[in-house]
Amino acid sequence: MNLIELNHHNGISKIFVNKPYQHLTELVDEREFVVITDTNLIKIYQDFLWKFKTIVVPAGEQFKKLSEIEQIYQKLIDYEVNREYCLIGFGGGVICDIAGFVASTFMRGLKLINIPTTLLAQTDSAIGGKNGVNFLQYKNIIGTYNQPDYVICDTNLLKTLPEKEIRSALAESIKAGLVYSEEFFVYFENLNQKISSPQNLISIIFEDDILENIIKTAVQIKVSVVEKDEYDVSNRRILNFGHTIGHSIESIYGMRHGESISIGMVTAARISNKLGYLSDYDVERIKNLLSNFGLPVDFIFDINLVMKLIEKDKKRSSDSINFVLLERIGKAKIAELSLSNLKNILNDLY
Ligand code: NAD
Ligand code: GLY
Q1: Are 16 and 1 in contact (CB under 8 A)?
Q2: Is the pTM of this model over 0.70?
Q3: Residue numbers of the domain that contains 6
């Protein structure tokens, strides 16, 4: 078990990598917590969850919305929750976002423990305190910053996860390498040498301590970035690499988060290249790695529809956006890009 600490404005968020999730009750008295989970997980983990006060949300991105949050508030009132209570988010990125949002708003703030059950949530979304919910077609447009007191990442939870969810999640870990650590990107390239086809990637990832290494390194990178810019006013934005276009694709086409980010990253890499930063060779390396891992890279999207959503993007100020580019693999750069320029580049590229 490894402990990684994230220092934030209000204390320390403790992130355990490979701590058995059953040890939750060592951290908090079970009489004083409520678990938020989804309809898939309640079935798979009923042996663990049945004994706790639980709120079950329908599984899926489309339920990360305010009407679900209102129902959760009602159930917390029914459970007579007071300010001493702790909320436990037991689920993927959707549930951790929902639990974080509820924990920061109900009674102006409850303690929060995340037990992320997807690779995406263990490597990214459960860490760092951002909690977003969707409104209309806009992703994560309503949200708060609220750091969890603890995060318990247990790789055993990932054994019940469908393969396509593991594959999709790797996109965010590859992103961590792209924006912050060439060494981590090369780790994935070396892993790629070991696989004969995208199909056997997942069995290799579950061998030895590969999964644990990926989670540990991705968490360390996220912690380093977030500690320097908790409120996302400067360099934390590098974590949004591939997300401006990726989020729009996710909203329009309903793809998995990681799959959309994979397409968004290849597009952002090509834009970086077009603007004279990233080399042709590095664009190919990125595309090859994602594609060999079975992630989509060549999806043709509707540029007008994507641009329409970007215009409403919460990161936009006036007629330009902060767009994350790559100078090289392992080094990101935030540039202000006018919307018209972005649209022209996309039309040139596709
Ligand atoms: P998800 O939460 O929808 O989970 C994917 C599916 O896997 C769901 O059907 C879920 O029920 C199921 N599942 C989860 N754990 C399982 C397990 N152990 N065994 C079997 N099935 C399991 O998707 P996700 O990819 O984990 O998260 C995506 C969400 O995360 C998006 O809403 C995205 O916006 C958000 N996100 C947030 C941040 C942040 O910083 N807050 C960062 C990245 C992504
Ligand atoms: N997932 C981007 C961030 O946490 O800032």
Answers
A1: yes
A2: yes
A3: 2-160
